[in-house]
Each structure stands twice: as C-alpha cells, then as structure tokens.
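Lab meeting prep.
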Amino acid sequence: MPKTHRGRRNRERVIQRIDRHWAEKGATTATVEVDQAPGQYARMKANGKELLRRLEIDYPPETRLLAQAPQTSRLNIMAPSLTRELKPGLTAVLRKFTDIIKPHAQAEIQHIFEETQAAGIRYPRPKRGSNRSETPALHLGIWEKFRMKPKITNESWKMQRTSVRALIAQLCTIVSTEIAPTMVGILGFYYPELWERQQKILYRVRNELGAEFEEMPWLDFKGAFFAIAIKEGGSEINHLDWSDDPKGLTWVAPVGTWRGGDLKTIEMGLQTSIGPGDAIIANMREIVHAAAPVSQGTRITLTGFTCSFLAKHSV
C-alpha cells in the first residue's frame, strides 16, 4: 500500500513544535487517575433511551456530583488496564491539548459558521426520538452509513445551495489545512497503531472515491478523522457516539466565547473544561458523555470522527 504521510520524523517535528510552544507559554500537564476504565455500556445496542434508563439505575441523581478536572494546559486522564503481558498498567482514556486551533482560525470558523446560518444552510431531518440537544448538527466529510462504499455526506454538498457550498468549502479548508495536520502529528506520536489504521482507511477512501474526492480537497482531513460534526452548543444528554469507530478516537474542539459547556463523563466522575482552541481526544463510542449547558455566549463545537462502517470495511 502506498504511503500516505511523510514518515515518523515529520510527525515528531509536529509534536516538538507543539511541545516547544507549550513550554514557551509555561504550559503545565496534569494527570488524573480514575478507579475504573469507562466502557461498561460500549457493547449495548444503539438505544439512547435504554442507556439513560440504565444510567438512572447505576448512577442515581444523588451520586452524580462530578469532580472538576484540573484546568491546566494539558490533561491526561488515566484508567486501569492490562499490558500485552497481562500485567496491571494505566492507559490514557482521554487527553486534552491546548492551542490546537489558532486564534485567527477560531475567528474564521465562527464567522463562516454564522454566514452559513444566514445563508440558509440545510440540516438533515432529526432522527425520530433523538433528544441529545436542542440544536442540530451538520455532518461534513466522508462516511459509510447506508451502503458498502465511502460516500460524501449529502450535507457536505448535494443538499446545499451553491452559495452555502462555497462557505462549506471555506470552513472545511481551514480544518483540512490548519487543524488536521497537527492532529495527525499527535495521532502518529501518541497512538502509532491507530495512526496506521487511519492510513488504511484513508487509502481506501482515496482509491474508491477517486476523482470525486480529488475535486473536493477541503474534505481531505489527512486521516486524522473522516467527518466533522459542527453545531452550536453541545449535546446536553448523556449518550454514546454509536456511529463512531469503536476502535478509533474522536476529537472535540470548540471555538467561540462562552461560559459553561464543560465535558461531563459520568463513569469517570469528572467534568472537564475545554477552552477555545483546545481539543480533547478520546473514544466517545465507549465513554458516556454530555456537555454542560452553555450559560453565556456562543460555543461552536467541532467533533472529528471516523464512521464505524467506514473503518470496518477498510481494515
């Protein structure tokens, strides 16, 4: 299979640049150890109501007081695991990085998002019984939900007006050229086995979509993820991202100016603050999560993910 990246040295340079930047800013890293690894609901069938019912039993309201995770520049949340030699160890189940989205890119994303709303961007019809949030999400990129072949989402192009298509291309170009390369470097450095998996998916996407993909370079997120969900606010109801690759990782990166909106992870007993330009990476197919309400301002959330069927049919 042809290589789709420039090798380990290039990824290390990305990480070195990030580390150097954090060091110059006096950034600190906090590590939190939780007693139990999340994932006890990961094997459930996709049923949001059943998940909420089980959470009510396992985590009664009086036990749901969450501890605030350290509000440092970088954060590692570690959980018990077994090594390949079946020895007890710790695995990072969530990492937070800062300054992943530069201030100028944050401003451009927020401005373009607001323009898409004014231009009448079309959202898909909400799923029956879906109640994660009061605001809809737009899914841009590649997935494989309804057929055995990679597909550009209708929301990315087909269902949009010409004026909106141009705005989508501008927004995704920022993600593709200014955000995704840094995330690729982080994946390659911290998660090399997963990065190899992502490359296989990328190879299949490029091979099967061919010219259609080449004509829309703004939808090439370099293998960091293959689709982004963009929405105002967050998903306030506890849920799992059922459609995500169960062996992959999801990125969550907000932009804007707001109060509230912390990430709540009930299984780990933690509430994590994510500031403008920050990004967290975790397996959101395994970790039950929700967003605290945004009490003031505007928060636009970008969630980068890989569709489960796309991954399953690629590796």
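Slide two material, second protein:
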Amino acid sequence: GQCVAIDLNLGCPQAIARKGRYGSFLHDETPEAAYDVLTRLRNTLPKEVGVTAKIRLPPTEEDAQAGKLGHEFRFVSPQTIEERVRRLIDCGVDLITVHGRTRFENKVAVGAANWDGIQIATATAREYSGDIDFPVFANGGIEHFSDVQKCFDHTLCSGVMSSESLLEQPGLFDAETIAMNGSGILERQLNYADTYLDYCTLFPPLPGSLGIKGGSFNVARSHLFKILHRYLEEQPDLRSWLGNQEMCKVQQAKELISTLRARYSELDEEQLKMKSSWNDNSS
C-alpha cells in the first residue's frame, strides 16, 4: 500500500534507545540531529506524505534539583517544551504527539502524566504555526476509557493515544467493552488472549525477537502476561507456568487459558466481585 506518513519517534526511553542513541536520548542530547532528520524528510518527501514526530517533555532544572535526572545528565538546548514545539514546526512537521513525561519517568520511576505540559505544547503549536487546528496528540495517563475525555478537556489536544494500557486492554477506546460485570471482563480478557494466539499461529513473531532461548514464543509470552495480568496475579501457579521456559508452544498457552477459564467459571458474580480482578480499575 501507499505510505501515508513517516513518524520519527523521539520519545522512546528504553535502554535499547540509550544504547543506539535514538528516541528520547537523541532529542535530549543531540536535538539538532533530530531536527535535521525531520527537515530532510519534509524537504525530500512529496507534500502528500506526512511527516510527524513523537516527543517527551524535556527535563527541567527543577527535575535536576529534585534528583530525578541522575548524575550523568547534561542539559542541551532547547530546554522548554515551547522551544521544542517551535523547532519541530520550523522543521515542517504535520503533527506532533507529546508524551506528558520526561525520559527519566519510566518503568519504576513513572509518575502521573503532566497534562499541563501537553496543554502548553498544544497552545504553542497553534499559536506559532498560525493554525488554530494544528494537530497535537496527547500520550500518557490514559489507563481507562473515562480518561480519554478528561485528557481532551484538560489539554485541548486533537487526539489521544495510549500504549501501555492497550497492551492489557486492546479495546480501551471502545466504550462497549468497558461497562461489564466481572464475568464479562474475564471473558473479554480470555478472548483477547485466545485471539492473539490465533494471530500468532497465522503470523508468527520473528525468532529471537526477545532472546534466542524460547524462540518467537517469548514475544507471545510477554503479551500474554500483559493481557492476563490481573488473573495471573491471583493464580501464582499459572503465572509461574507461563514464565517457565518449558512453555514454548501456542497449544500450551491455549491450555493455560482453558485452565484459567475453568477456575473462574466455578465462581458466581458475587464471588467474582470479591476478587481484585473483577474491576476494570484493578490493574
């Protein structure tokens, strides 16, 4: 099919991005290189092919004083979200996505998303570009369907995206998948897991994607841990079974899902409500 747009991800905070000096590390430490890439893309690609960028909020002096940035961090201009947005628009980007956290707010250090920062980015993009509808997408802090409208209202953004929460609840943006009782939520998650494994059979993950040992099943394993998280927390033996390297086939994972379904099928709705997993806010 035809390429509609090319996005430069300047938001990745993972260790692999640190090693390769890309993602948020490229934007924080060598921003001019990032802007050069975007400018060249815009100047080279046909106008009908969009150029977009995803960024994080820049670390601040306040973050440094609070001890959030570690000992090796050094500031490189631009240091404010307003400056970052202006530079991106100067590069000719057609859309900006802003994650409301710095690269240091990751994994165990993750905190609440800074929607105020995204609101500033949205206002800056529209004022500086002269386009009152310049598209800015918000990322971060979207854990439940109800968070979507809250984010729109707070940031005045054009669109909302999610990443981590979608790994557990792929139907996060579908209101019909939210208002469910305990058994409905259980079946929803088990069906997600079953459907995902069916796709793995049709389109196997690349061997070695997450290490040589375990082959491509390591990819499936990591997704199943996300999708079934709330129930595996209540069934430690099944959690250990999924984590065991001897589980390396789709059929074995299907058996785990069947076992999980059988265990919870013995519980009525009132018993399910006694479990921490029954509520969509439980994860």
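Talking points for slide two:
The mean pLDDT is 88.
The two ends are 37 Å apart (CA to CA).
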